């Protein structure tokens, strides 16, 4: 793939706009909504579990790194790379959970002061931007994972693709979470911070 080729980016943008338009028009179709929410329940739950496991692995490897370095005075050669890789996986898998919960940065002021079709339009525009970003993340993450498949991570002696694979996998989970959040958006009263 030529990095200056605008074709993939244009395709991602067009697909994002088409998906947003289809969801905007088809949000009232109960079968579509039910199918996306059912798929989301499974994938977001799986992403949350895997992100928690990745955090536990990072914690365990980090703890071992400290113990090995200061208690036994023989630093571990694999623990730092494992911590870094586990944290990358945790971040990109956690992205799906954050998108589904609506916990990412939103257009709060515009959303709060708008109603009806304007509010739904803002939500659709935010979804289109999010899907575009996730499409780019998937495309280039997939490309990079393929490019580095024959390189090894120092200390772990596994393919570098395992680290880069977090990008397309996390983007795929996040797309489902973003779609479900759009379809399942409910009017919530903002909580005041005490």
Features:
membrane; disordered C terminus; transmembrane helix; 194 residues; cell membrane; mainly alpha
Mean pLDDT: 83
Radius of gyration: 20 Å
Count of runs of 4 or more consecutive helical residues = 7
Structural class by helix and strand composition = mainly alpha
Helix content: over 70%
Low-pLDDT residue spans: 186-194
**Succession of helices and strands:** HHHHHHH
Structure description:
It is a multi-pass membrane protein. The chain crosses the membrane at residues 6-25, 46-67, 87-110, 122-142, 162-183. Its main location: membrane. Residues 61-184 form the Tripartite ATP-independent periplasmic transporters DctQ component domain. The chain has 194 residues and is mostly helical. It has one domain. The protein has 7 helices and no strands. Helix 2 packs across helix 7 (166-183).
Give me a quick take on this structure.
The chain has 194 residues and is mostly helical. The protein has 7 helices and no strands.
Could you outline the blueprint of secondary structure elements for this entry?
Layout: H1 7-26, H2 30-71, H3 79-101, H4 108-112, H5 116-147, H6 161-164, H7 166-183
Helix pairs in contact: 1-5, 2-3, 2-7, 3-7, 5-7
Transmembrane segments: 6-25, 46-67, 87-110, 122-142, 162-183
Keywords: Cell inner membrane, Cell membrane, Membrane, Transmembrane, Transmembrane helix, Transport
Domain Tripartite ATP-independent periplasmic transporters DctQ component: 61-184
């Amino acid at each position: 793939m030529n990095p200056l080729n605008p074709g993939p980016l244009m395709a991602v943008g067009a697909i994002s706009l088409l998906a947003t338009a289809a969801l905007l028009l088809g949000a009232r179709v109960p079968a579509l909504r039910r199918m996306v929410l059912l798929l989301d329940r499974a994938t977001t739950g799986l992403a949350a579990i895997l992100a928690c496991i990745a955090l536990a692995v990072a914690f365990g490897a980090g703890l071992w790194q400290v113990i090995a370095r200061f208690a036994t005075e023989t630093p571990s050669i694999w623990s730092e790379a494992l911590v870094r890789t586990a944290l990358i996986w945790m971040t990109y898998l956690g992205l799906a959970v954050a998108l589904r919960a609506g916990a990412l940065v939103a257009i709060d002021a515009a959303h709060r002061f708008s109603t009806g079709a304007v509010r739904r339009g803002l939500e659709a525009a935010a979804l289109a931007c999010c899907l575009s970003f996730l499409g780019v993340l998937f495309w280039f993450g997939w490309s990079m994972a393929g490019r580095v498949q024959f390189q090894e991570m120092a200390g772990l002696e596994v393919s570098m693709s395992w680290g880069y694979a977090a990008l397309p996998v996390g983007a795929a989970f996040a797309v489902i979470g973003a779609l479900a959040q759009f379809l399942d958006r409910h009017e919530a009263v903002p909580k005041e911070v005490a």
